[in-house]
Every structure is written in C-alpha cells, then in structure tokens.
Amino acid sequence: MQEIARYSGCFVCGDKNQIGLQARFYYQDNKAVAEYTAQKNFEGYFGVLHGGITASLLDEVMIKALLARGIYSMTVELTVNFHKAVLVGQKLLLEGSVDKEKGRLFVTKGEARLENGEIAATASGKYLQVKEDLKDILTKSLES
Question: Would you say 36 and 50 are in contact if contact means Cβ atoms under 8 Å apart?
Fold first, then answer.
C-alpha cells in the first residue's frame, strides 16, 4: 500500500493539525482506503460520532482516490447516506473510488464500514479537476 499525499494542516488528514482527525490514507487496488477510530471529542450525541465527521472522512477518502492518480480537484457535490450510528471507540474502515469521469468532472463513491462489516454510511461525490493556477497552489501544500 502506498500512502497518499497530504497537507499537514488538513482537518482530516493533517498530521500536524492538533484538533483534526489525523487520518492516514493509502492507495491499493485502485481505491483509497483508511481506518479511523471514533474519538470522544468528535461526538454529536453522547457516545456517538458526529455525522459531519463521518461525512468529512468520506469526502476525504473519495478525493484521495483522485489525488492518488495525480488528479487535483475540489468537491462540488457530496451526498452521504447514513445507515448505522458509529459509537465512540468503534473503528471505521473507509474506501473511496472513482466511478465515472467526463472531462474535468469526476464522480466517486465511498463507503464507511464497521469492523464487523456492517455499512455505517455510503457516499457519492462530484469533483472538478482544478485548472493549472490552482493546481500549483494545491501542489505546494502537499507532502508525499
């Protein structure tokens, strides 16, 4: 597995963002993958991971599937369907992949599963490949 580039200050994947999730993303079998254990400081209700955190993880795993292919993009649409509550202390197994592409627009799909295989959430996203001027800015912030 190859670790996917990250920006150290990113809320989701930044290893130097002390208030962030600090998730690590890898590329294998044409998919971005990650594991994340639900932390108490990201509760929505007592003992339950906030749905916005799950959505952020899914957004990140889908955009990482593009980044791993050298495609720099920005989210233009994100749809998340929640199937099961994630409790504090539970581990999420995340997968993201590219479903379709048309010009600069990419459609992705994502999934968050519990360790027992149950689906916690699914997602789809649309990402627009950035133009060269913005790509230069994004490239400067990434670490490999």
Answer: no
Tokens (6 digits) for 27: 């590329």
pLDDT band at residue 108 using 50, 70 and 90 as cut-offs: very high
Residue where the block lists tokens 């920006």: 7
Residue at 30: amino acid letter:
N
List Cβ neighbours of 126 (8 Å cut-off, separation of 6 or more): 75, 76, 77, 78, 105, 106, 107, 108
Residues 6+ apart with CB under 8 A from 122: 80, 81, 83, 109, 110, 111, 112
Interval 2-30: pLDDT, tens:
999 999 999 999 999 999 999 999 999 99
Which domains, and CATH codes, for the chain? 2-138 (3.10.129.10)
C-alpha to C-alpha distance for 8 and 43, rounded to whole angstroms: 23
Q: Which pLDDT band, with edges at 50, 70 and 90, does 136 fall under? A: confident
Give residue 143's pLDDT.
65
Residue 77 pairs with which residues in a beta bridge? 126
